[in-house]
């Protein structure tokens, strides 16, 4: 059963107002990804994907990611909208997390703008930030949404949400 939409307050967005199929848009928000005390990525040129019931996923230009900390894995998944995704293990110092970030080497034409961009699972990093606010991760490793105080749900990903 689909849950009741939370009405957004002033300056907030409801994920239930996001479209399906998803929309890709530019973002000038200050985005940071920190892992094991190292700033792995930082940008004001991210792209975000907005899809019904999901918090935004931020994609960071590859040239603004410290690629020395990334190693391509053999993991692959498929998105009906974006195509085939490949994954990175993120390693900094003595810590390593497999499949903690993903990218689309050959995205579908509608999402071609995220080619050479990387997304990170906030729950697998030490901290992901939007304009200085540490984000909460979307429930489930299947999704990589970034929840901030500006985003209201309820959010897909937790137990019992598969049929939404």
3D structure, described in words:
The model has no long low-confidence stretch (mean pLDDT 95). The strands form four sheets. The chain has a seven-stranded antiparallel sheet, with no helix packed on it. By secondary structure, the protein is mainly β. The protein has one domain: Domain of unknown function (DUF427) (Metal Binding Protein, Guanine Nucleotide Exchange Factor, Chain A, Beta Complex). The protein has no helices and 15 strands. Helix content is 0%, strand content 47%.
Can you tell me the CATH superfamily?
A: Domain of unknown function (DUF427)
The helical percent reads under 10%
Main CATH class: Mainly Beta
Biggest sheet overview: 7 strands, antiparallel
What Rg is obtained from the alpha carbons, in whole angstroms? 15 Å
CATH hierarchy: architecture? Beta Complex
The low-confidence runs, each spanning 5 or more residues with pLDDT under 50, are: none
Please work out how many helical segments DSSP would assign: 0
Q: Main sheet: which strands, in order across?
A: 2-5-6-10-9-8-7
Sum up the overall morphology in one term: globular
Layout of helices and strands:
Blueprint lengths: L12 E2 L8 E5 L3 E5 L2 E6 L2 E6 L2 E8 L8 E10 L3 E10 L2 E9 L13 E4 L6 E4 L2 E2 L1 E2 L8 E2 L3 E2 L12
Parallel strand pairs: 1-15
Antiparallel strand pairs: 2-5, 3-4, 3-11, 5-6, 6-10, 7-8, 8-9, 9-10, 11-12, 13-14
């Amino acid at each position: 059963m689909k849950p009741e939409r939370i009405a957004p307050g002033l300056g907030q967005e409801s994920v239930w107002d996001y479209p399906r199929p998803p929309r890709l848009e530019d973002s000038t928000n200050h985005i940071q990804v920190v892992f094991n005390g190292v700033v792995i990525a930082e940008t004001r040129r991210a792209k975000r994907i907005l899809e019904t019931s999901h918090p935004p996923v931020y994609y960071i230009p590859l040239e603004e990611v410290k690629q020395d900390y990334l190693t391509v894995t053999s993991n692959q998944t498929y998105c009906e909208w974006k195509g085939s995704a490949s994954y990175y293990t993120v390693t900094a110092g003595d810590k390593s997390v497999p499949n903690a970030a993903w990218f689309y080497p050959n995205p579908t034409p509608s999402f071609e703008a995220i080619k050479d961009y990387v997304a990170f699972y906030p729950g697998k990093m030490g901290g992901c930030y939007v304009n200085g606010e540490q984000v909460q991760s979307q429930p489930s490793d299947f999704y990589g949404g970034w929840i901030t105080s500006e985003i209201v749900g309820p959010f897909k990903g937790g137990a019992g949400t598969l049929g939404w």
